Amino acid sequence: MISGRLLLMFVAAAMAQNDLSVDCGGDDSVTVRWRPGLDSSQKLDPFRALLGNCPPSFTVSDDTLLFYVLLRDCGFLKQVTADRVTYSNMLIYDRRPELPFISQSVQCVYDSAVSTTTAFSAVEDENEGLATFSMELMNSDFSAPAPSMRFQLGSIIPIRATVESRSHRPLKIFMESCVAATDANISRAAQVHPIIANVGCLMESKSGNSSFLPRRHPAEIRLDLQAFTFALGQNIFLHCDLEAWDIQRVDRKACHYMQQQRRWELLDDPSQSYACSCCESTCFWRTDSTKGMSARKVLGPFMMEDESQSDTSLDTQSSTEHGLTEALLWLLVVSVAAALVTIMGVLAVSYYLCFWRGGRLGYRPSRDLLTKY
């Protein structure tokens, strides 16, 4: 139970106060009312909004959303300092394809004297040494790290996440949420894009060829993410909330959309794919969290670029190399010509001194030599 003096209700960047209200409750919950600020030609669609990886709880009016969530859910990042405990998250509204995302940071800050029974904390779990989470970019067959951090638009970005239990307890890992951002600190990111949301739904599989891959073992989850149009040519960071549970649990999910079948499929048991039906609406997922572990991992930077950018880069590089080659060739020609002129000058001077001038000064008639000797 969270109790104690509330220091700061929220931090909102570049938004009017009446567009956002945050109630950081004393019962480990937070209530957010948000008006994304759409123009008159746009109709509010709650399915386009997220708080971290959680969809809105209600639509309270034609232009206002309400989120009622727990601080241990939705991918809140917990930071502890000497005098404060801060919970941070991000509001996102997707206006694609016509307009960019609307995003806004949200924080609840408490006095560090506050005691909490929240067991589902990435910092606490990893500091206690119960498990180690990792995430990395891989090559196409997942046999080694990715050879390059640059990916062409439409190509596949292989991603692997793993968990290792230090108590040797068998665990199964899930990717609860992932957000692409243009900064390693998501609150400073100029652009953000949800990849996995709604507690394990791979949203990018709905619009592209992204998918989860069959598991090789429970402690690993693999994702083929198709490079898409987002922050092309810029550094990109993937912010993911990872979870690990006892392998016997069946109430967690990893879902991707099957384009040909036009339906969502559950990674671990396609026959139970009805568990993914909420990916099109709102997934409410409340279970006992004391047996689970979690961590937030940031992967990157990597870069997605289209072919024209790559061609332009190659052309520029080729032109530079060609210009450099021509410059070196002209430098060589000038150097050789200068060397030849120098050699010819030395030879001419030597001939003058040794054979012409020297010969003329040392010449005496033979009769003078006979008279002398």
UniProtKB/TrEMBL annotation:
Coiled coil feature spans: none
Top-level lineage group: Eukaryota
Gene Ontology cellular component annotations, sorted alphabetically: extracellular matrix
Residues annotated as transmembrane: 327-354
Family annotation (Gene3D superfamilies): Zona pellucida, ZP-C domain, Zona pellucida, ZP-N domain
Pfam families: Zona_pellucida
Gene Ontology molecular function, alphabetical: acrosin binding
Name this polypeptide is given: Zona pellucida sperm-binding protein 3-like
Originating species: Sinocyclocheilus rhinocerous
